[in-house]
Amino acid sequence: MAIIGKLVKAGLDITSKLTSADDTPQHSQEKQLKELLSQAKNTAFGKYYGFEEILKSDDPIDTFRKEVPIFNYEQMHSLWWSRQERFPDITWPGKPDFFARSSGTTGKSSKRIPITDDFLATMKSVGTSMINSLHDFDFPESLFESEILMLSSSANLDENEQGFREGEISGINVSNFPGWYDMFYRPGKEIAAISDWDERVNAIAEQAPEWNIGAIAGIPSWVLLMLQRIIERHQLNDIHEIWPNFQVFASGGVAFETYREDFEKVCKKPITVMDTYLASEGFIAYTCRPDTMDMKLALSHGYYFEFIPFDERGVSETGDLLSKPMVLGIEEVEVGQEYVLILSSCAGAWRYAIGDVIRFESLEPPQVKITGRTKFFLNVVGSQLSEEKMDKAILELAEINGATINEYMVAAVKNQDGEYIHQWVLVTELNTSDLDSKLDELLKSANKNYAVARSKALKGIDVKVISKDQYTAFLAQNNKKGGQTKTPKVMKEEKMKTLLEFISQP
């Protein structure tokens, strides 16, 4: 394996030297849009919205925005995607072989995103670009001699009556790995196909000492639980006792910072954390530079992006898009500004609002950070709390009390007097009597709008604490345990009531 490590690292060095400078972001995106329109012009969607005429116009981007409306999932599915199981050439040429169910959802209410061969190719292309960027990190050869463990959702996909295969996007990706991936991919397709989460993790823990893991990819919460399970199973002090070459964690799905301290506890050596923006709708961005977790947008990989300012120019006070929002291209965005991301892709998504809010951290190259979801924007009574602001307050609360708080849930609920309060549930071993007041003060410091709301319509906050075991039991009850499951941090009132009823049970 040592010679392989040398060859791989040398190959990355050569690739870095041979790779020519990218086009400007604006030119790259114009090219992507034209290619997407050209490929889809003879689909039902392309004919309905006149893609061929858009391509002939003097300004295809402006014409595209005028002719094609912005879609959310419900609109895209009901009007177009629901027809793709019966008919070809609806929003993309041919029929998709797969449908990706959105993470954290099950049953009939799941979002089902069409996954085409072209789309799978783009995800591999972005992954290759991320691997090529490792040259700039100057990792030792031992990393390239080791294996990568991908904690995905189950690769045992469901097949519906029409013959389409369905699962979460990470499981679809794993099921499409070529045979030669078995040289370095762990836990392997057999274990990855185990549907039950606990059974799959137990199988990983059992075989863990046989592997030489250098990198792990997955959602922090579930990866942490897996590492803790391995350490417990083999009575280890830390994970580096069996995986001394573990050096890289490719994080994604949720913000990493609330998990950092617990990762440090299970690791003897420092690890490099690289963030990824990998959703059912695409592999959108990835960390490409050392000493930062900002992510480079995939501007040349089959995606066309638009950006709606996440303020009064683009959204309402509740975070919903305006009927006629301001829409910007990559050349018009500003560093430090938050935007709702709009995507068109070779999966047949057109001007599709994913629901994520991003902020540009740099423009050369365009690098972003996910600051939250539009639905995770807590503003029922004008508090204007973003996920990022809430994460910051929770981290400070944990530091003040010398504890870790990985997960939390919050909802605006009415108290017995019919007035709004914020109900918080923290997943932690911490339990002190004044968490309510401490968190309240930290939130006031983090956001002046919250402070104003607390002096008016928001009458208080209530904090409850649950253990990690209670939290995972709640997820299990709702069929949401798994390697790619993400729990909404901001809940609707009814969902919070369900959680409170569950944790109140003896």
TrEMBL record:
This is GH3 auxin-responsive promoter. Gene3D superfamilies: N-terminal domain of ligase-like. It comes from Algoriphagus locisalis. Residues 299-373 form the GH3 middle domain. Residues 390-494 form the GH3 C-terminal domain. One of its GO terms (cellular component) is cytoplasm. One of its GO terms (molecular function) is acid-amino acid ligase activity.
